[in-house]
Structure formats: structure tokens, C-alpha cells
Amino acid sequence: MSTEHIVTELRDRILTIRLNRADKKNAISSAMYAAMADALVAANDNADVRVVMFVGTDGCFCSGNDLGDFLNSPGNASGNVIARFMQAVTDLSKPAVAAVQGPAVGIGTTLLLHCDLVYAGEKTRFQLPFVNIGICPEFGSSMMMPAIMGHPRAAELLLLGEMFSAAKAREYGLINDVKADDEVIAYARAQALKLAAQPPNAMRTTKALLKRWTREQLKDVIGVEINHFGPMLTQPEAREALTAFMQKRKPDFSSFS
């Protein structure tokens, strides 16, 4: 299932999904979403897979969506490819672990809300810049973040859209722990190996129970967010923000109401 920009490896009952587009800081394209969705669907049906682990390239986890891809095809945001990936993540019955280094922006952060164990390097920087670029949160983050950290902290991260540290992410309950940058992937894999040695049915049942009480609501929230997110990409605020980003200038929202 590996492609040029998504590399998968099944070893020791751990399926590693690696974002492998270092020249674009692992910005996710439509093709990458499709490849990850395929890998997750297959993992659910493969008894040899007991744990899924998300990693990026050395020093970079994910810089968010490929903005050029979105500008050229804004329908991707509300189309089947991203929705299918989100569905595959929420339907994953096996534990998911993430090892995060460097930037984790947009969906590079919201994906972590759906993982069971998350470990970040000391220099990791997170950001949720949805409002900054004229759009709204996605992947259930408008529900999950207040539930995890309370409304004031969620509002701070989502409305201001500022970068924040791994220490703050741990304090706010977004990640499990912070490790040295050169140790975080090995540590996360060691934790994944522990999970892979657990009784598989008991582990799947426990994860299902943990998710059961919010699963249907989460699916509704993701759908509502997508219904806002897609159209907002074509509206003037997002066009100004994304064009300014591509032109490397500060966006000007002074004339918007």
C-alpha cells in the first residue's frame, strides 16, 4: 500500500504509516489521504495488525493540508477523499500511536485527537491555524478539544491559532508525554510493542468502550464541520488568506465584515 508520499511497514504486528513528503514538510495531498485511508481500512481487517503507528519524516510530522492542492481543487475538502480518511480513522478498532517531531499543523494536530497514545519531541510545535486562513476547525476538533481541555483552553488554541509547545500540549491533555527529539520515535514504538503484546480482543473491546459514548456524536460533528469547511474555502476570507500565504505576505481582513 506504500506510495511515494505515504510509506507503510508492517513489522512486529505494528503497522507504521509514515508521511514521506519532506520537501513539502509532509503537507497532505488528496492522494496521500486516499493512501492512508486504504491502509487503515486494510489494517482493520488484518489480524496480523494489532497497532497502527503514525510518524513523519525526521524533524517534521505534518504541516497540514497541501494549500496548493486545496486552492486548485477546493471541492477536495468536502469530497469523498478526506471524508473517507476521517471515517477510516474513527472506525479503526486497533490502538493508534503517534510519534510527533517538528511542526504539527492543522490536521497534523487534529489527527492526534483520534490517537490513543501520542508522544512528542521537545522541539515539536503545534498549531491550529484554521481561523487564521478563513476557515473552521475540522476532524471533530470543535467537540473533542473542549472535552479534553475545557472551553477556555480550546478557544485559545482555535480562535488565536497561535503556535504552541509540546510542554503546553502535554499540560492541556493533547499528548501523553514529551521526549527528547532523537528518542521520541523509538519510545513511541516501544509503547506500541507493549500494546501489540496485549490480548488483542480485550484491547479492541476496551478501545471500543472508551469511544462508544461519543462515537456517533463525533461522526455528526465531523459531518457538520465538513459542511462548513468546504464552502468556506471558496469564500473571500479564505481566498485572501491562502493567496497571501502563497504570496508570502500578511493577509488583510480590514474590509471584511
From TrEMBL:
Tagged with keyword Isomerase: yes
Keywords: Isomerase, Peroxisome
Gene3D superfamilies per UniProt: 2-enoyl-CoA Hydratase, Chain A, domain 1 (3.90.226.10)
Source taxon at top rank: Bacteria
Pfam families in alphabetical order: ECH_1
A GO term for molecular function: delta(3)-delta(2)-enoyl-CoA isomerase activity
UniProt main location, coarse: other
InterPro entries named among the record's database cross-references: ClpP/crotonase-like_dom_sf, ECH/Chromodomain_protein, Enoyl-CoA_hydra/iso
Cell location: Peroxisome
PANTHER family per record: ENOYL-COA DELTA ISOMERASE 2, PTHR43684
Protein's recorded name: Enoyl-CoA hydratase
Organism in which the protein naturally occurs: Solimonas marina
Source lineage: Bacteria, Pseudomonadati, Pseudomonadota, Gammaproteobacteria, Nevskiales
